[in-house]
Design brief:
By secondary structure, the protein is an all-alpha fold. It has helices at 2-10, 20-33, 52-87, 103-122, 126-145, 152-172, 177-198, 202-207, 213-217, 219-243, 248-267, 276-300.
Length: 301
């Protein structure tokens, strides 16, 4: 049991709350468009499930894909960054630098979860299976990016943005503008809050020649850049809501989402980073979870 707890800590399982709610939005949207829920007429989707039981099986595999993909990405990040983490006082107590989990075990864990992810996509549909190596490349490649580009935060956002798009594909087998817009919102939302989180390591990253927006622009301008990204995120969800002709509940969830974005920026300043973790975990966890609940309720009702 202790070993399981260590691996859950290695992959910071609690952070699943960021992307998972958006995946559920994508899945429910797909179920609506294929006529399994709501009052809409069933559209023509050749790769869509034919029965409710098949839809449920796809939901199970989508959840498994989320777990396996994120586990692979986080374990690989910890494996690759272990030498760096050992030098950083903030991260030196992580499982690999602290000797709790051997570095090679983290790599094996990455490989196993990557293979499990690809296998699950095989049971969903052809397009998800064929695109699975692309998705895997994106989420694993992120771990290299801070070694050469300050835009690493956007690559992280890109990885998480696959959640609503991929979940919609899992049901319908086709792309659609609304989940793509939600994916754009996730890219800029995640990149924005990751910039805020990385403020803590600005001095360390600079000393180790690592790249980030705070290293590139400085703390004050990094916060401004983060705010711009969050404005784009809110704009993408605004466009999604208008295009999808959603109802009151969508807009109520949207208001909470925007409120949480404003709240997290009120917590942090270049001179005071003491509440970064509240801005990072609490505000963003509430933003994604509440927004998803309201949107899904809007679709169902």
């Amino acid at each position: 049991m202790k070993t399981v707890k260590n691996y859950l800590s290695l992959i910071t399982f609690s952070h699943t709350i960021f992307a998972f709610p958006f995946a559920m939005i994508g899945f429910v949207l797909g179920a609506y468009d294929t006529g399994f829920i709501g009052n809409a007429e069933r559209g023509f989707f050749p790769d869509a499930p034919q029965t409710s039981w098949e839809l449920m099986k796809r939901l199970i595999f989508v959840v498994c894909c989320m777990v396996f993909a994120r586990s692979a990405a986080m374990a690989f990040n910890r494996y690759l960054d272990a030498p760096i983490d050992a030098l950083n006082p903030r991260t030196a107590k992580r499982e690999i630098p602290a000797g709790i989990i051997p570095r090679k075990n983290a790599l094996i864990f990455t490989v196993v979860n990557s293979l499990a992810f690809i296998l699950c996509t095989w049971f969903i549909n052809k397009i998800c299976f064929f695109l699975s190596p692309v998705a895997l490349f994106v989420i694993l490649f992120y771990s290299y990016t801070k070694r050469f580009t300050a835009l690493c935060h956007l690559v992280l956002g890109l990885g998480l943005s696959l959640a609503p798009v991929g979940a919609y594909l899992a049901v319908t087998g086709v792309f659609h503008l609304i989940p793509v817009l939600m994916g754009l919102s996730v890219i800029t939302w995640v990149a924005g809050f990751d910039i805020i989180y990385s403020l803590q390591d600005e001095e360390f990253d600079r000393s180790e020649n690592l790249s980030s927006i705070p290293v590139w622009l400085g703390k004050q301008n990094a916060l401004r850049f983060s705010a711009i990204l969050h404005v784009i995120s809110a704009g993408a969800l605004l466009a999604s809501g208008l295009l999808g002709d959603f109802g009151f509940l969508y807009w109520a969830g949207y208001a909470v989402y925007c409120g949480m974005l404003l709240y997290q920026h009120s917590l942090v300043s270049p001179a005071d980073l003491s509440r970064v973790n509240i801005a990072f975990m609490t505000a963003n966890g509430i933003a994604s979870l509440v927004f998803a609940l309201f949107v899904i309720a809007d679709i169902l009702i």
